[in-house]
Amino acid sequence: CLARDDDFDFFYLVQQWPASYCDTKRSCCYPTTGKPAEDFSIHGLWPNRNDGSWPSNCDDDASFDESEVSDLINRMQKDWPSLACPSSDGVRFWTHEWEKHGTCSLLNERQYFQTALDLKAKSNLLQVLKDAGITPGKFYTVERIKDAIKEGVGYTPFVECNVDQSRNSQLYQVYLCVDSSASDFIECPVFPHGRCGSRIEFPSFSSSTSENES
Ligand code: 5GP
Ligand code: 5GP
Ligand code: 5GP
To answer: 53 in ligand 2 pocket by Cβ < 6 Å?
Structure first.
């Protein structure tokens, strides 16, 4: 049979390190609900194919309906905040992720957000890194960070870096792969492209800056 253009083989659960979103040239704006805790937060749960391509915007009629996730909003504000400017309550970011990626997930809106939140909690990334002696505010090799996540979560992640204002390469996003029914982590069938420096910063939030921090 022919492949549909909205099929996929697995998900990337993408978590961002807020300090690294904020300390670049573009800066950031804290959510209207306040400065997020120093923890990883969800960027999205992205359907992906084994050949590296991915479907997007699979339902032009879909829109984000806050009432479907009303009992998850507290967790979403804490674990899936938006750091883009201007400051927001997150609805625009959640709408974007749901429309672009969630509509291709075969999950309904509630399942999509609940699944991402539960997988984030299960990965427990910050604790996993701390258990390996990796704490914010210092430099580490990418290999050490990946090994710690492999050890603590059980699967090898992809680490994406960006560059801070002093041009240090730093840990920006961590990708973990999830099976196509979104039930558990798996080894990644394919990794995204991109390279980090050999030593990267794991920056602390307290030393980073935000446009609405004064
Ligand atoms: P960027 O160009 O910032 O890396 O990615 C822009 C957007 O494209 C991401 O926020 C995400 O929505 C989508 N995207 C980028 N890389 C991937 C990928 O490897 N898989 C999937 N499914 N989406 C991606
Ligand atoms: P966007 O999803 O924002 O239209 O595209 C994000 C970037 O990822 C584009 O530069 C696009 O060329 C690239 N890209 C590479 N493979 C894919 C794919 O399979 N699907 C989509 N949507 N973008 C892809
Ligand atoms: P993507 O298409 O790359 O999955 O989603 C990124 C889009 O969400 C961009 O339009 C970006 O401006 C917006 N956005 C809002 N808040 C955030 C955030 O906290 N982190 C990231 N990476 N993008 C955000």
So the answer is: yes
pLDDT in tens, 67-98: 999 999 999 999 999 999 999 999 999 999 99
Atom of ligand 2 nearest to the CA of 56: 22
The residue contributing the CA closest to ligand 1 atom 18 is: 192
Is 125 inside a domain boundary? yes
Counted domains in the chain: 1
- Can you read off the two tokens belonging to residue 140? 């580490």
Q: Is 123 in the pocket of ligand 3 (CB under 6 A)?
A: no
Identify the active-site residue in 97, 99, 109, 201.
Answer: 97
43 is catalytic: yes
Residue 96 in domain? yes
CATH number at residue 91: 3.90.730.10
pLDDT tens track for 122-164: 999 999 999 999 999 999 999 999 999 999 999 999 999 999 9
pTM of structure = 0.90
Which residues are within 8 A (CB) of 31 and not within 5 positions of it... i.e. 6 or more apart? 77, 81, 82, 83, 87, 88, 89, 90
Q: How many CB atoms lie within 10 A of CB 40?
A: 19
d(CA 36, CA 205): 9
